[in-house]
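Internal ticket #5521
Category: modeling
Description: The requester needs a full-assembly model to guide mutagenesis choices. All entity lines are attached below as received. Residue total reported by intake: 544.
Assigned to: D.W.
Attached entities:
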Amino acid sequence: MEPAAESPFSVYRGEDSWLIVSGPGKAATAAATAYLHLFSGGEMGRAWINVGLGGHSARAVGESVIAHKISDGASGTSWYPQLVVDSPRPTAPVLTVERVEEEYSLPWVYDSEAAGFFPTACRFSVAELVHCFKVVSDNSDATLSRRMSSTFLEHLIARNLGDLETFARDLAALAEELARLAASPCRLPALAGKSGDDLR
Amino acid sequence: MIYVEEDVLNHPRTLAIQNRFPDAEVVSCARYGEIFNRRAQHFRLQKRRPSLILAKKHRNFVHEAPSGFGVAGARSFVFDPMLNCIYDCRYCYLQGMFRSAHYVVFVNYEDYQWAMEEKIRALPGEELWFFSGYHCDSLALEPVTRLAASFVPFFSRFPQVILELRTKSTQIKSLLDLEAPPNVVVAFSFTPEEVQAAQEHETPSVDRRIRAMERLQERGWRLGLRFDPLIYTEDFREQYRRLFRQVFGSLRLGSLHSVSVGPFRLAADAFKAMVRLYPEAPLFAGPLEQENDYVAYRRELEEAMVEFCTAELLRHVPQEIFLPSLSVAPATPAYSTAASGPVP
């Protein structure tokens, strides 16, 4: 991917995809999502994936999941991404929290972005095309992800790239189907006065 | 994926349904409206992989059919403990009635039955019909929902009231396991084979439906035939004539409770929603027209189809069991399911 912008967010452009680095936090993620939507042309109905790190009580570091439920720890609001393609990874609920958690009282993935990303991206697309792909960076045995080196965190994401690409391709195909549908000429206007002539 | 409302996580019917899908991921939610019919959802995409939602209905368990609909001279009520259908009939108003394609099952059947009993007791001496199958197919998910298995014994307590289970399904095992009450009508919808193959995706063939009816007939069930909606093709006369021969060649007149025809008619808003979802569907390129708030076949065409089918049917069945039209309610889009509470 080629750099496309550096400020206010780093944006990269690939052949048929875009990447924006939001940084942590709901507000930053919501802002980055809206920014990328406009920066990339404002087209509706595209596939969106939030790729990020999270903590989990039991899952191994490096394991990835796709969110089937996202809850905002601050407001209690929940959203439910609609998975209509094969999921290359297990699914799990994601709890977006304001501060880094080290005690995972629920068997959820704890992150800091999904609740900012999902409702924002759904303004520009449909829930079937908006998903969160989370890689476990810390668990009960290996906490304090903030102290992990960026190289290690990059490595965690890199080892999940295959599944991520598969998922992204499937969603992109779905988005193309939706675009074709939206572009299909409606036959309705041509209907009036057609057929039934054998009755006369 | 099975979504379950927190209120019914431990409901016996929830647990029984979950047991049928031991590998399904169970996701809890506060109210089914958090998932079902949300704004940013796409019915056609979701129809590729619908999930089951188990919920609790809180109010409006039974609706009276609007004036001009239902059975003439009787009070007609509609109830549906399920929303959406596993089939994919291109002409069906359920395509586009909701933004979601998920199947919602309201597991608190007993609350429906309380509400029905209240209605029945409040209207002594009146002819009452209760219809299931307006927002779903009454039997298509029977092995999962056990809807008929619960409601048929309930209605057998009220012999003066008619229950119609409308279906295209051959899931009749739970009916075969029950005694057939004389006031329960299992009504099968039919279109000719060619229409079924082209428009009624995922449904059992005409032949399989007839075989299911034969089995029910052998067990004493009263049967209904619903040629509804009538779908136009250039050779509709030959197609419907052949269909009637097929059906009446297999069913005994004595088993038939009633026979009806129904023209293809949709609220204009529902029709527009369906065309947006399936712009390529040849059905919508038929000789349709909008009159007031409805889209239907051109009037002379509709009349010709109804007249032809009526005349043909009356060659097979006596007038007494022929109900000219049996639509229970106008088909309108229900973008909010306010009947059950907070669907945003």
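Resolution: model delivered.
Comment from assignee: The two ends of chain A are 64 Å apart (CA to CA).
Ticket closed.
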